[in-house]
Amino acid sequence: TILNILDSRKHKVMGQPRNLIVAGKNSKAHIIEEYYSIGENDSFSNVVTEIYTDENSNLQYYKIQNEELNSVHVGTTQVFQEKNSIFDSVTVSWGGSVIRNNLNSYLNGENIECNFKGLYFITGKQHADNHTLVDHAMPNCNSNEFYKGIIDEKADGVFNGKIMVRKDAQKTNAYQMNRNILLSSDAVINSKPQLEIYADDVKCSHGATTGQIDKEQLFYLKARGIGEKEGRKLLLYAFANEIIEDIQIEELKIYLEEKLSRKLES
């Protein structure tokens, strides 16, 4: 676990963490990056994480943002994967006034697996910006991106995801999806899933959905004695927990589920 805390109790602060993570051949590891801020003054995190996954390695990477509303977070995670490696990422963003996540992976060998998952839950005037790039440079690789957002009040979010398939990357399988729920008429989401394909023997798809809580599902719950407030909470919890439920570290999964429940209560 890499724990980053910015202390702005006495004055404004800026932190510039730099992380280098190397997963050697045939290795397996779980990495958690967690970000907090304390204090009444403004704080700014400018983060760069470089990750290298060697042949046959398996890396599970989790990035959790819990900063206060007087903080700005800009982070770039750059991944370089060798053949037969697996990289799984989960990014959870629900703290900070402005959040920018850049997540890029370069697939430099055959039989690589790359999976990006993300959840952003923002309210008030928060802004969450997620930019991703999966660069398929070699054949016979798979990638999967799945991001979900819950946006309330006057918050706004951005999802800008790109799948690049280069001319030598035949037999690529790549999937990308962004789903959002808007809880108010002032909430905004700008979603831009993209495909850029230069090979002809590939399976690639992308999509985006934006809507409100399903009224029929809410009616179903109310008809069975569940109040509207509790019904809304149950539906939002199920929507968001689809990102959290596959986390392999049980303690982290329980922590995030409890945090999600508390945010829904508030």
Could you explain how this protein is built, in words?
The structure is a single chain. By secondary structure, the protein is α/β, with parallel strands linked by helices. It has three helices and 16 strands. The strands form two sheets. Strands 1-4-6-8-10-12-14-16 form an eight-stranded parallel β-sheet, with helices on one face. Strands 2, 3, 5, 7, 9, 11, 13 and 15 form an eight-stranded parallel β-sheet that branches. It is globular and about 55 Å long. The relative contact order is 0.11. The model has no long low-confidence stretch (mean pLDDT 96).
Oligomer: single chain
Could you name the ranges where pLDDT drops below 50 across 5 or more consecutive residues?
none
Distance between the termini: 28 Å
What structural class results from the helix and strand content? Answer: alpha/beta
The mean pLDDT is 96
For the largest beta-sheet, the strand count, sense and barrel status come to: 8 strands, parallel
What is Rg? 19 Å
**What is the molecular shape?**
globular
Order of helices and strands: EEEEEEEEEEEEEEEEHHH
Number of helices: 3
Helix content: 10-25%
Strand order of the largest sheet: 1-4-6-8-10-12-14-16
Work out the strand percent.
over 45%
| Total number of strands | 16
Outline the fold blueprint.
Blueprint: E1 2-7, E2 13-15, E3 18-23, E4 28-38, E5 43-53, E6 58-65, E7 71-81, E8 86-93, E9 98-107, E10 113-122, E11 127-136, E12 142-151, E13 156-165, E14 172-182, E15 188-197, E16 202-211, H1 215-223, H2 228-244, H3 250-265
Parallel strand pairs: 1-4, 2-5, 3-5, 4-6, 5-7, 6-8, 7-9, 8-10, 9-11, 10-12, 11-13, 12-14, 13-15, 14-16
